[in-house]
Amino acid sequence: MPSFKCEYYGECANADSGKIIELTSSVDPKCPVCNQPLKPVIADGKQSGGGDDGISSTSSGGGIKPQVMIASAVAGLALVGGAAYFALSSKSPPKQVPTPQVPIASAPVTVAPPKPANPDSIAPKADELEKQKKDADDCLLGKKKPDECATADKAASTELIKSGVAKLKQGKLPEAEEDFEFALKKDPKSYLAYYNLGVLKLRQNKKDESYKYFESSFIAGFPYFDKMEQDEDMKPLLKDPKFSALVAKYKK
After folding, report:
1. Which of 204, 198, 162 is nearest to 183 (CA)?
2. Measured at the alpha carbon of residue 234, what is the angle toward residues 112 and 215, in degrees to the nearest 5?
C-alpha cells in the first residue's frame, strides 16, 4: 500500500507530527486533514524527489522549503502558546463569596441601682456651722454676754470636726483623731466628735473602744440614727446584738 507524508508544517497536524499516511490509491493523493497534496514515501524512508538526506530541498507542486517549514512550525507553536497564556491570564480571579454574618443576640444589660452614699462619718451641717460662726463674731465684737460666748468654742469645735472628717476620708487616722480630741476640749458635749471617734476606732479594729465613744455620742444627744445605718463602717456593729441593744436604748 503506498505511503505518503504531508509537508505543510505549521498548517497541518499530520505534517507537524510526521505521520505516515497510507492510501489505497496513489492517484492525486491529498492529506485527509489539510487537503493539500502529499509526498510519497519510498521503502527506505526517503521521500521521492529528494536528495541524499531524504528531505526535498525544493518542494514540487507547491511544497515548502525545510527552513521555511521549521520557522512556520516554531511561529505556530509560539502563537498557540501565546494564545493559551492570554486565555489563562485573562480569566478573572474567582469571586470570593462573603461569609454570611450570623447576628449574635446581646445579653440584656442590667443596671444596678445606685448604692446609698457612704457618709464614712457625719460632719456638721452647713447652716449650723454658719450660725456658730456668726455667734462667735458677735462675741468678739461684744454683742453677746460672756456666758453666751461659749458659742465661739462650739464653733471652733465644729470646724475641727469638719477637718477631722476630711482627714478620716483620706485615711489619715492619727491626724483625724487629733482633730476630734481637740474638738471635745472645745465642746465636751459634741456628739459628732464622739461619734466620729467611734468610727475611727472601728477602722483601727478597736471595737471595745468604739462602743464607749458611740454611747457617749448617744448620751450627748446624737440624732442621726438613719444616717448611721447607711454608714459602711457601721455594718459590722449593726449586726451585733450588744450594739443593737445600745441603739434601741437611745434611739427615739
Report:
1. 162
2. 155
- pLDDT tens per residue, the chain (252 residues)? 788 888 888 788 888 888 888 877 667 788 888 888 878 887 554 444 444 443 333 333 444 444 444 444 444 444 444 444 444 444 455 556 555 554 444 444 444 444 433 344 565 666 766 676 677 677 767 677 766 667 778 888 999 999 999 999 999 999 999 999 999 999 999 999 999 999 999 999 999 999 999 999 999 999 999 999 888 888 888 889 999 999 999 987
Side chain identity, residue 126: A
Please tell me the number of Cα atoms within 13 Å of 192 on its side-chain side. 26
> Which cell numbers in the block locate residue 91?
480569566
In this prediction the pTM is 0.45
